[in-house]
């Protein structure tokens, strides 16, 4: 009984004054408003930086491009026969794990029930979620619009993998010592295997593009400078080239066909365009 | 040296008793299990975890987010004392900073285990990407950890060990004068990263149940509400163990009530978030994602029972109804319950969001597999390391540092 009395007494002694309560309440409300404003709102310093970045990218469709080239691909869903050659050639050329290919091919159905095949490399978004979220700029845009990886800088946090809307990224969970079943039938590795603990993805065969341009070749026209998946396609469903050049094959295909881009509503501005099947999607 | 003489001279320290040794032995076992798991992960790589390309984040990110949230008592209470001038709460500050320090270092330890290249942990400081929420979080957490250390330095230099180093002690006391300034800086930086940990999920537009502006607010509010209650619980539990008053109970009761009000505010936002996302403003993507979670996972149970009842309602009652709020046991029970709630919230956000597969195909047949995940034993092992580490830090500090002596400056 006595202890209870004591407690009651104490409670009265420590009662907060009204001004204390008001101060805390005002501070709490202020902080709650301030925190999101500081991080994401229009008043935030980061928001302004972002605005500046967006304003710099006004050219429609070539968001991150600052150079003369914007490498892109057109994939005809109407022509694709689902043979998976592109996947195999990619795995061999880039020495990708066969069970986790960069470039996938899957059977699909239109809303009318007709079968078609969807293949998906990295789409090289011009507003790329992976580039936005990488804490160390290990994945970034080159001036030709390609989204590339710096394997020496990646810390393996996998935020890009979480953020990519297209499931186009793979993490190296373990040291690679698997045998590549597609070598040498489908090609020989032209790049090194990536180390354990970094994220990797399709590069549009960047090594071929760069080496080809140095030799004066035209990527998308000369085979030596063109991605392996495009070269191997037996039905010519894939076309590669410079989206900035109105005379390139890709630009002409886009001009003369209906095209769609995957999840365009997200505003990712992908560099890969799909020609839908004739009967529609 | 006789132990009994030592305890008499310093009444606020744990006796070096058999119970203390058994407790340290128990912590030692936790640390051995944990270190074994951690070293195994470092040697073999992350493939021995159950994380995969479809669920690249799991238990460790949950622990990381939770320990940062549970350590938020430090910045909240520092702000209350030094910025809003409620000096009555001063006696709890040292303990709050200690709990914050344990929480933040635990988070960094977990992150170090989780990233694929721990040797490159320093990259965010050198290679800046200001557009990345995660970069901002990394910078804030490391800066805030330094603030916590500076705030705690005056306590460390009062340890007996520094009798021999008066210069270092004087430096530590000088740092103490910076405390009000550090509290302001700490408040700003903490509000920023406690919110942006939520924004880490909230900005991912391809994931339907993550993409919403309420994420940062729910993260920061739940942390502000729960963190101080955890500090109170630690104070009571330490008191039961050492048998001496740590922090005056009237102070602890004020904080408990503050937590209760904070939980109600969090509950209010959560209610409207739920109403807006799943009812008034629902979209097909969100609806089908929740339908999937409802069908295939215990998500509804862990949301309603874990997040709402255990995380908000029960602790709010225990903290605010006068009959309970005077009872230390109720405060500890409430804090534990709120802790479970906040951990389940972080888990549900992370793993629930990744469970729902991405959908990007224009066709109707193809869909990615559902992201299945349950932590592997080795992942639990690393969590045991983190828990063992946090308990060791708190135990040693209680035993060797003057946490509870009255400081009038």
The domain count of chain A comes to: 2
Order of helices and strands of chain B: HHHHHHHHHHHHHHHH
Report, as a whole number of angstroms, the end-to-end distance of chain B.
33 Å
CATH topological fold name of the largest domain in chain A: Alpha-Beta Plaits
Radius of gyration computed on alpha carbons of chain B: 22 Å
Q: Can you tell me the CATH superfamily of chain B?
A: Formate dehydrogenase/DMSO reductase domain
Oligomer: heterodimer
State the domain count of chain B: 1
Compute the number of strand runs of chain A. 9
User: On the 0-100 scale, what is the average pLDDT of chain A?
Assistant: 88
User: How would you classify the helix and strand content of chain A by structural class?
Assistant: alpha+beta
Strand content of chain B: under 5%
- Average predicted local confidence, pLDDT of chain B: 91
Structural Rg of chain A: 26 Å
Biggest interface pair, counts:
A-B, 74 and 76 residues
Distinct helical segment count of chain B: 16
Query: How many separate helices of chain A?
Result: 9
The CATH topology label of chain B is Formate dehydrogenase/DMSO reductase fold
- Structural category of chain B is mainly alpha
Instruction: Enumerate the spans of chain A where pLDDT stays under 50 for 5 or more consecutive residues.
Output: 5-12
